[in-house]
Amino acid sequence: QVQLVESGGGSVQAGGSLRLSCAASGRTFSSYAMGWFRQAPGKEREFVAGISWSGGSAYYADSVKGRFTISRDNAKNTMYLQMNSLKPEDTAVYYCAATQQAGVRTREYSYAYWGQGTQVTVSS
After folding, report:
1. What value does the mean pLDDT take over residues 46-65?
2. What is the rounded average pLDDT of the residues 28-53?
């Protein structure tokens, strides 16, 4: 198994930036594809970005493409989400997730391991 802990959330004004981190412990981090999801109040959890085990492939939701960048450092067992040009509609709890399935996964059910989430609040 792998344990995941998110950090880096907070409050920022529209147009600002935040970088989220997801620290993994347990089995070999580099054997997992990873993803970021978010859940806004009153809404279902949605896919934000995903990255392959090697970091060579990434995929983004249309709503964040060009503003967010997902990356990972397998030597540090950590995944990141750099969020720029933040908008009020980016306000949500952000979750990192891990899967042993190959490639980049965009569906919740593909991920077996989840963190507890970190709050991101963007004010206008």
Report:
1. 97
2. 96
35 near 106, Cβ under 8 Å?
yes
Residues ≥6 apart with Cβ < 8 Å to 42? none
Return the number of other C-beta atoms located less than 10 Å from residue 121's C-beta.
Answer: 15
Place of tokens 């981090």: 29
Interatomic CA distance for residues 82 and 20, integer angstroms: 6
Q: Quick one: pLDDT at residue 28?
A: 86
| pLDDT one-digit tens code per residue, 85-112 | 999 999 999 999 999 998 999 999 999 9
- Does residue 20 contact residue 36 with C-beta atoms inside 8 Å? yes
Tell me the C-alpha distance between 15 and 11, whole Å.
Answer: 12
